[in-house]
Amino acid sequence: MTLLELKNISVHYGRIQAIKDMSFTVEEGEIVSLIGANGAGKTTTMKTISGLLNASAGSISFMGEDITKMKAHIRVVQGISQAPEGRGIFPAMTVLENLDMGTFGRKDRSGVSDDLERVFTLFPRLKEREKQFGGTMSGGEQQMLSIGRALMSRPKLLLLDEPSMGLAPQFIRQIFKIVTEINGQGTTVLLVEQNANQALARAHRAFVLETGEITHSGTGKELLANPAIKEAYLGVG
Amino acid sequence: MSMVDGPTPLHTAKADQAAEDRGAVGTPPGSSAAARRSGWFGGLGEKWQALPRQKQWLFLILVVILAYLLPIINPPLISTEPGNDFPLACQTMAVWALVAVGLNIVIGYAGLLDLGYIAFFAVGSYVTAMLTSPDSTFLKIPYLWTIPVAMAVTMFFGVLLGVPTLRLRGDYLAIVTLGFGEIVRILATIIPALKGQVGFQNIGHPPGTDASGIPIFSNSNGTPWYWLTLTILIIVLLLAGNLERSRVGRNWIAIREDEDAAETMGVPTFKYKVWAFAIGAGVGGLSGALMSGQVGFVSNAKFDVVTSILFVAAVVLGGAGNKVGAILGGALVAYIPLRFTSIAEYKYLIFGLVLVVVMIYRSHGLLAARQQLLAYGQKAYAAVKASSDAKAAKAKTGPGKEAAS
């Protein structure tokens, strides 16, 4: 089943067009990666899907329903949750309070403790630090908190914006392993990355973004094997 | 001994020094700079949290009683007399504290820099003036009834200003609110019904006269006014405290810390920002109504930008996000020029210097916002603890059950 569908989306910042006529779909149960260089429009795409930015043309539908004009805080209730670029945690709140903020849009309060268990199982480090203030944690821990918080709304679609940004290699591997695990538990993941190697290896399908347009698409493995992509994004060939 | 005849201040000074030395011995020499810095005022918060509940209540009750008795005790060193009547000074301080508590909701909790808060103060003052002064042509109602009316009208103005402007952020919002403050002052000048510099005289006051037939709440009798304002301040403080600890307060903090993140958590940020603006405005209107009742006269002269900036200074000085700090900041900003009348001319120079010094040494204000689990978080924490304990218990008995089935 198609979970998310973007049709001919364009996004402008004032007069500058950041996304040009973009169309793609995300099927239920997939991990889909969007890779691209700086300024390719990756974060813009994410913000448009989560509702922080409005598309100037085109339509977005989620589970068959048109959400193009829907406000961001209502999209969360519908099942789209975002771990924003740069983590976006609340520094003056504790880990637990941060996670609790993630449950804001939920109607089933009874499921919260189960999801908290799940997040603590995925990220045992968060449990150790549950009373620590978000702002005092390391970058990797903040990234875990950001993903954990996004999971607390029990989303159908999880948007991860550059989860590897600024992290040490062993943290990056760990984060990607956990992303696969989250996907295995039934959450569809849309991932935006500069770290193309990991993002392609973990993805069912992937798209390459260049200056606001999709230039390549295929399964993760196909793109990993594509010589042009190898040269441009993987630093080999 | 000659010591006995010697000036006593010297003796106490020595004792204080000795006490300080003992205190200094208590702190290990290796303690970090941050810890030492917070020892001055910041340590207070931790010490306060460490006290048992009963002691906290006892201390609070004592402080409240002392606050009520302040104009009667008229403590010699603290008193603003002979320059200014002390009970009236207390009233001014209480009004400023109330203003700071209200503005703290906007700046401290929701993180919206409002430089035109004076506008709400002005609207509250004018509502009271126009509904009670014989100079206005509007219908007249008793003074105490104008207080809720003033609050309702200013809240309406808060929403009116908030809806178009709260889509802006940071600097842009500050500039627009600054403009709004000026617009209200200029409207008071040019709209004939608001009477510009002539203003409104003989503004109403609460009922009641003493034995000789003089109204209890006369313009020159500060004590009853101070008691009224202090009572309202305490009520507002309790309500603000409840808001702060509720989900609403936490959403405000989330918006303050990262508005986009709050929105992607499902918080309708725009709605909560308008709420913060409206509630803050309501408190501003309330303080305006109390001020105009006591002074008995309202004209456009008092509502200038400089006063608006002083309101912000009071919140920042006290510690944005901390309501006790706001009271301290508001009272101090009102008190200093009244107490030190000889330097009142230089008050902006002095406030400027004080703010610079405070921002260097205590960038979060005299009393920083509480860094502790908010009540909501504590509840969540308790719930998690309970569920994980239950899980652990199940895990223990789990294998047996599986074997049975």
Automatic annotation (TrEMBL), chain A:
Alphabetized InterPro entries for the sequence: AAA+_ATPase, ABC_branched_ATPase_LivF/BraG, ABC_transporter-like_ATP-bd, ABC_transporter-like_CS, BCAA_Transport_ATP-bd_LivF, P-loop_NTPase
GO terms of biological process kind: L-amino acid transport
Residue stretches making up the ABC transporter domain: 4-236
Keyword set, alphabetical order: Amino-acid transport, ATP-binding, Nucleotide-binding, Transport
GO molecular function terms listed in the Swiss-Prot or TrEMBL record: ATP binding; ATP hydrolysis activity; branched-chain amino acid transmembrane transporter activity
Keyword flag ATP-binding: yes
PROSITE patterns for the chain: ABC_TRANSPORTER_1, ABC_TRANSPORTER_2
A Pfam family annotated for this UniProt entry: ABC_tran
Family note: Belongs to the ABC transporter superfamily.
The name this protein goes by in its record: ABC transporter ATP-binding protein
Protein species of origin: Arthrobacter livingstonensis
Lineage, broadest ranks: Bacteria, Bacillati, Actinomycetota, Actinomycetes, Micrococcales
UniProtKB/TrEMBL annotation, chain B:
Subcellular location: Cell membrane
Biased amino acid composition, Basic and acidic residues: 13-23
Keyword Membrane: yes
Alphabetical UniProt keywords: Cell membrane, Membrane, Transmembrane, Transmembrane helix
GO molecular function: branched-chain amino acid transmembrane transporter activity
InterPro entries given in the database record: ABC_transp_permease, LivM-like
Transmembrane segments: 57-74, 86-107, 112-131, 143-163, 172-194, 225-243, 274-297, 309-336, 348-369
Membrane topology summary: Multi-pass membrane protein
Keyword Transmembrane helix: yes
Source domain of life: Bacteria
Annotated segments matching region Disordered: 1-34
GO cellular component annotations of the record: plasma membrane
Protein name: Branched-chain amino acid ABC transporter permease
Annotated organism of origin: Arthrobacter livingstonensis
